[in-house]
Amino acid sequence: xxxxxxxxxxxxxxxxxxxxxxxxxxxxxxxxxxxxxxxxxxxxxxxxxxxxxxxxxxxxxxxxxxxxxxxxxxxxxxxxxxxxxxxxxxxxxxxxxxxxxxxxxxxxxxxxxxxxxxxxxxxxxxxxxxxxxxxxxxxxxxxxxxxxxxxxxxxxxxxxxxxxxxxxxxxxxxxxxxxxxxxxxxxxxxxxxxxxxxxxxxxxxxxxxxxxxxxxxxxxxxxxxxxxxxxxxxxxxxxxxxxxxx
Length: 246
Ligand code: UGA
Ligand code: MN
Hints:
The protein is an alpha/beta fold. It has one domain (3-244): Spore Coat Polysaccharide Biosynthesis Protein SpsA, Chain A, CATH 3.90.550.10. The chain is built from 9 helices and 12 strands. It has a 7-stranded mixed beta sheet, with helices on both faces. A 3-stranded antiparallel beta sheet has the order 7-8-9, with no helix packed on it. Strands 5-12 form a two-stranded antiparallel ribbon. α1 (15-26) runs parallel beside α2. It is globular. The two termini are 36 Å apart.
């Protein structure tokens, strides 16, 4: 089965290094379709170059955050991007045995995760490391069945899970034309899974009954954008070209 790996991304100083790391992880993964969707008004040539160099099968699209979201203090980040990816899956002739995974551009993905994703029949879940002060977010498994969740921020959610902690079948996406991600900061995962009509009993526990961490919610330290472009200081290098990479 093909893995449809949906990655939202946006311009910031860490974007190119984060995508370099992610692309070089995906270079080791067979049968993957990488849907890279930029929260931007136009495709970035720097992002494009990373995708082409990787040799990974990809689709590169844009889906800017709606204006009303941009104005909000707490924004629903990556949502228009992920919905664009879902739309692409619905509108194209995809591998109907495939699996869809939402993969933020800054997380760390163990190569063992990909076999787990690929084995999902309808909805699979697994632990995510380095998240909230609990350190991990995970389904609670008893006798091979998911009976609840361990998460640092339950907040009345039916499915208190992180974006990186689940994958769904392409079939499930195709069956639910209304299965979109809402612009509800903090509740995107929960509402998306509820929109798909998921029940607790259907969840397939992965990563050896949720005893292994194969994905980490790493966050790259924020860097200030460079402030001064001094075109005279560089010898053989072109400072403007370097500057455009960050
Ligand atoms: C947490 C969750 O782990 C994310 O899955 C969730 O989308 C996010 O919160 C949220 O809802 O705000 P966090 O590390 O705080 O993750 O968020 P980011 O990694 O900064 O953003 C999530 C994704 O959206 C990234 O792939 C990022 O590149 C993208 N993004 C972020 C945009 O496309 N536009 C933005 O303005 C910000
Ligand atoms: Mn992140």
